[in-house]
Specification:
This protein has about 525 residues and is α/β, with parallel strands linked by helices. It has helices at about 5-15, 45-60, 65-75, 80-95, 100, 150-170, 175-180, 190-195, 240-270, 280-290, 295-310, 315-330, 335-355, 360-370, 375-390, 395-405, 410-420, 430-440, 445-455, 465-475, 480-495, 500-505, 510-525; strands at about 20-25, 25-30, 35-40, 40, 105, 110-115, 135-140, 145, 175, 200-210, 215-220, 230-235.
Length: about 525
């Protein structure tokens, strides 16, 4: 070849920022975001065909040889001319009646991309556009930097899994692997990478060898200033790497998602009250939800309603609305419990109608079904949420909750362990700990159950139903004075709270647990 593959590839990458968005005929090509669009929306294109189109667009008007195109699209790989021919055929078919005109064959020389502009007054062959403002929930996971070449394949696989997990959450706009890997050389410069890709957040990672282990440092960076909003150092033995990639990807993806959500909540809370868009309204609603009290939950309902009014297809806003109704019914903070259950089911069904592939929709529907008395249906849909996204901590919690109260308490403990591993500082941590206590109580380990009940009761967002449960378990362990103190706290905010309030929500508990709770309630006047 007259021009080395390495040189061609580097020239392509160095020019990648000069022109990132092109408009031609009826199409818009966004090379940074990895998207080809027509008037109807996204146009599907195979990765190699898309890479070829990007290079053709950047070099429109110039005849490019087959060797040059193969060197760019398949760097370091030996392929035949047939591979290029197939991609050319794919492009022409995708571009429709204009395909043969746009991608022209120059006999014995190669190909040229004739790209007529929509604006005929422009003299340029291709007209780049400034990328639109970054969506507040957009994120790019860059290839991790490895000091040892032998670690690169595993690291690339890990990054691919993290991208997949974040995409399955359907909570954010996640840049595709092809786009981030094309800018691998920018991995050490998250601000530049974020600007090129038009995202609000960038994840970077560095892998350092340590004798028989590797150390992975992961950073989440805001691109509007470069502040690191979260970092984590993970040490993993080399012997555990292959078997632990999946769990590691779950952990990174969930924590990245949690930190972005936390950042967006803070931004939404600090925004002016008037003019909130659907995204801001939803995240302000989350901030209210995580306080777990009646007044805040009512404010959350208003926020979610505003988000839905602006975007009826916002599945997570419907799921949030369902949770508010669930909370009022579960905590006994309503006059008409049946009406709240129906409302929780209705909102969860709306989330499912909008997007049943969203794990939040399945989680909301499973939770509402359980509240309505269908524990089997609750398990079915919460397990579906985990199947959709194995790193979805709240779904693991709900599975464990149902198992703790109606199923296998050991499986419940396993689910609580997964939840805490994925999200050790979760707003639902008090609920995770009291569920662990219930499971231990059912297994006969009352002393350890009391330890976890005490931990749960100390959280600032512990609400009446949770505190009542903690008091009963502590009383069963002989800690009656502490239990009475918790009951007094409950009655300050909810004077009518009694054991019957709990039994009404947590139905069909095993007889032995009900007997323990009745004895404890008699001892502490609950």
């Amino acid at each position: 070849m007259l021009l080395s593959r390495y040189y061609i590839t580097m020239v392509y990458f160095m020019n990648a920022l000069d022109m990132s968005v092109f408009r031609f005929a009826t199409f818009t090509l966004d090379t940074a975001r990895g998207r080809l669009l027509d008037e109807a929306g996204d146009v599907a294109l195979r990765p190699k065909s898309f890479a070829l189109l990007c290079y053709l667009a950047r070099n429109a008007g110039r005849v490019m040889s087959k060797d040059e195109l193969i060197a760019v699209v398949w760097p370091g790989v030996t392929v035949t001319d047939d591979s290029l021919t197939q991609c050319i055929r794919d492009l022409r078919k995708t571009l429709g009646v204009q395909g043969a005109t746009l991608v022209r064959t120059i006999p014995r020389r190669g190909y040229v991309f004739d790209m007529p502009l929509r604006d005929p007054s422009s003299a340029a062959v291709a007209r780049p556009m400034a990328p639109p403002p970054a969506h507040p929930g957009s994120i790019a996971v860059m290839p991790f930097t490895c000091l040892l070449r032998q670690d690169q394949v595993l690291c690339d696989g890990l990054v691919n899994d993290v991208i997949g997990q974040l995409a399955r959450l359907r909570s954010f706009h996640v840049i595709a692997r092809g786009s981030t890997f094309a800018l691998r050389h920018m991995a050490v410069d998250p601000i530049r990478a974020g600007s090129a890709l038009g995202v609000a957040y960038v994840v970077t990672g560095t892998v350092t060898p340590r004798c028989t282990a590797v150390c992975l440092q992961v950073d989440l960076v805001r691109t509007d200033g470069g502040a690191i909003v979260w970092t984590d150092d993970i040490v993993i033995a080399r012997t555990d790497i292959l078997g632990g990639i999946g769990a590691l990807a779950d952990r990174i993806a969930h924590r990245v998602a949690r930190e972005i959500t936390s950042q967006e909540r803070m931004l939404a809370v600090s925004a002016p009250d008037h003019g909130l868009d659907a995204w801001q309204s939803y995240h302000r609603g989350l901030d209210h939800v995580f306080r777990f009290d009646a007044a805040a939950m009512a404010l959350a309902q208003g926020c979610f309603a505003s988000a839905i009014a602006q975007d009826a297809g916002f599945a997570r806003a419907h799921a949030g609305q369902s949770f508010c109704h669930y909370f009022f019914a579960f905590a006994g903070l309503c006059d008409d419990r049946d009406a709240e259950i129906r409302a929780a089911l209705h909102a969860a069904q709306r989330a499912m109608d909008v997007d049943d592939g969203n794990p939040s929709s399945q989680w909301a529907f499973g939770r509402a079904l359980w509240l309505a008395g269908d524990s089997d249906g609750g398990l079915l849909h919460t397990r579906q949420a985990v199947a959709l996204c194995p790193g979805f901590a709240h779904a693991h919690y709900m599975i464990g909750f149902i198992e703790a109260h109606h199923g296998d308490p050991q499986r419940a403990l396993d689910q609580m362990a997964k939840t805490e591993a994925l999200s050790p500082f979760d707003p639902f941590l008090a609920s995770v700990q009291i569920t662990r206590a219930v499971a231990l109580l059912r297994l006969g380990d009352i002393e350890t159950a009391a330890i976890w009940a005490r931990k749960a009761s100390h959280h600032s967002n512990a609400y009446s139903q949770l505190l009542g449960n903690a008091a009963l378990i502590l009383a069963a362990a002989g800690q009656r004075d502490e239990a009475r103190g918790i009951v007094a706290t409950v009655h300050k905010s909810q004077p009518q709270y009694r054991l019957s309030t709990m039994f009404r929500s947590i139905y069909s508990m095993p007889d032995d647990v009900q007997a323990i709770y009745r004895r404890s309630a008699a001892d502490i006047n609950l």
